[in-house]
Amino acid sequence: MQSFTLIILQAGGAESLFQFLPLILIFIVFYFFFIRPQAQKQKQQGQFIQDLKKGDEVVTGSGIIGRINKIDEHEVSLQLDQKTFIRVVKGAISKEMTDGYQKPEETS
Question: What are the residue boundaries of the structural domains of the chain, listed by start?
Fold first, then answer.
């Protein structure tokens, strides 16, 4: 490690390190403002999908509102009306849209 630092300093390494500083700062900004929040959002969506249970009212990504009637390994059966059922894949159910749909009802 010391020999690597010594080689960099002998070859004008301090100046080259300052040249890479803006690039490093840009990467740090991208990580904290774009990559990390997106990873957290995906983790929350995955947890939401795992926690689904029969009787939950959910919204799909396309805006279909239904109550969960049956849950299989990869798909969910939603009851839209008294006798109307559809099957959707679990990934089609949106945590963000479900939360947005349920919040106005709670405040009423």
Answer: 2-47, 53-107
